[in-house]
Amino acid sequence: MPGQWEFQIGPCLGIDIGDQLWMARYLLHRCAEEYNLIVSFEPKLFNDWNGSGGHVNFSTETMRLGTGKMAYIEEIMGKFKAKHRVHMFVYGEDNSKRLTGVHETSSFSEFSYGVGDRGASIRIPTQTRFDNGKGYIEDRRPASNLEPYVVCSIIADTACNSFSKSDQMLAHF
Q1: Helix/strand/coil for 149
Q2: Quick check: 128 and 134 in contact, CB under 8 A?
Q3: Which of 62, 92, 138, 172 could serve as a FRET partner for 150 with CA atoms 20 to 30 Å apart?
């Protein structure tokens, strides 16, 4: 979208990502004030243009070490699919306007994932697939106006529930 900027934060361990994002948003607003600019985190300002997402890159210790292989990631995808509607409820206000299935977005109502697929709900980077599950995954569904503590909590809970304690404690965003 014209005038749209992107910034990235992290990597962060667990819930620290929320603090980092809130501080980054604060600094963005302060810088914008200096130049009389307006910052909007609205997920979809114009129908025919791309919206603004708050994509979350995520990994567990098992993913970073590659000990679970792609089967581990496939198991996590099953968990995300089962909780898709719950995630959509907390992934940002008016996110349904952005997730239309066009402009490199997935459908708001249907879960999907794929290797290198920028139009999927969750993208598995090609490198993660080539390294047989060693790497991270990207949840492309959250909107730019996401509440980071809520989003990261539900991602960690969904991905790590029923896995080992070490994965639950060592989730990185």
Answers
A1: helix
A2: yes
A3: 62
